[in-house]
Amino acid sequence: MPDLPYRRIAIAGGSRGIGAALALALAGPGRELWLCARDGPPLEETARACRDKGAQVRCHSCDLSQPGAAAAWLDEMGEGRAPDLLIVAVGIFGGRPDGAVVTPEAVMRQVIAVNLTGALALAEAGALRMRCAGRGQIVLLGSLAARDPLPDAPAYSASKAGLACYARALRADLAGSGVGVLLVEPGHVETRQTAQHQGALPLLMSPPAAAERILRALDRGRSSMAFPRRAVLALWLLDLLPAAWRAAVLARHRFSVHNLAPPAPPVARGPGGED
Ligand SMILES: NC(=O)C1=CN([C@@H]2O[C@H](COP(=O)(O)OP(=O)(O)OC[C@H]3O[C@@H](n4cnc5c(N)ncnc54)[C@H](O)[C@@H]3O)[C@@H](O)[C@H]2O)C=CC1
Ligand SMILES: O=C(O)C(=O)C[C@H](O)C(=O)CO
């Protein structure tokens, strides 16, 4: 693992999955970890493991989709204090329920409220504090689904495309301020999200492996990164195709290109025969 120069580190989504793996990889003597998540008990478990590695840890359990929640969390650091590194690793998948032909509106609203509104509110609150401090680094967890939309998770894919667009806007806004923005777009990582998936995911990566890649990208000063490489290359090649060919290839790989799986069995469609 690279030895990164951050001391005060805030991780939203630090209770499980990629966020927890990043917390563990960053934990060590001299590090102050501020962990936040929706679920209290797993958050405490991650905190304990990080303390065992010598870090000081503060936990905060909240729902970041609620107005004011992001700023309230960062305010706990004290007036005028900003994180050196803020990692926004919150997210919900909100896939279409089995047998449904549309995503329920309540699910779509919740996905956007967490993955987009909540993530943006936190990044903005962090950017404000870092701008005043004249330094800092923000990491946003997007997804390859932004480039390769998942047919059964349209709200999720749209939320990640929105986040990718926001990352570009934020990077431009913060240019010259001393604050950096890294957008991370993973394929499948073995977490609670992918555990719900039926069938094999051939390019599944472990959370510690994903965390290592993210930290290496930070060390190299990258502003965006995507993995695994095989899926990124496939998407890049697809982008070279004329739009109609691209659509045909995507349709063949019904579920997802970043999965690179064989075509999934046909999905039952509702009246209107859309697809
Ligand atoms: N697992 C995967 O294959 C991939 C995950 N990602 C993204 O990476 C990020 C982390 O994903 P995973 O570790 O897989 O997820 P996970 O389900 O293991 O963990 C999600 C974290 O977000 C927190 N969270 C969810 N809703 C929240 C809310 N309303 N308020 C506060 N915290 C909330 C949870 O408490 C948890 O700590 C997400 O943004 C996800 O979309 C992107 C690509 C692939
Ligand atoms: O961004 C992604 O890609 C994912 O999060 C993948 C999902 O977790 C998934 O495939 C769940 O079925």
Automatic annotation (TrEMBL):
One Gene Ontology cellular component: membrane
GO MF annotation list: 2-dehydro-3-deoxy-D-gluconate 5-dehydrogenase activity
Keyword Oxidoreductase belongs to the record: yes
Pfam families (alphabetical): adh_short
InterPro entries membership: NAD(P)-bd_dom_sf, Sc_DH/Rdtase_CS, SDR_fam
Enzyme Commission no: 1.1.1.127
Keywords linked to the UniProt accession: Oxidoreductase
Name of the top EC class for this enzyme: oxidoreductase
Family designation: Belongs to the short-chain dehydrogenases/reductases (SDR) family.
PANTHER family according to UniProt: DEHYDROGENASE/REDUCTASE SDR FAMILY MEMBER 7B, DEHYDROGENASE_REDUCTASE SDR FAMILY MEMBER 7B
Protein name: 2-dehydro-3-deoxy-D-gluconate 5-dehydrogenase
Source organism per UniProt: Pseudooceanicola marinus
High-level lineage: Bacteria, Pseudomonadati, Pseudomonadota, Alphaproteobacteria, Rhodobacterales
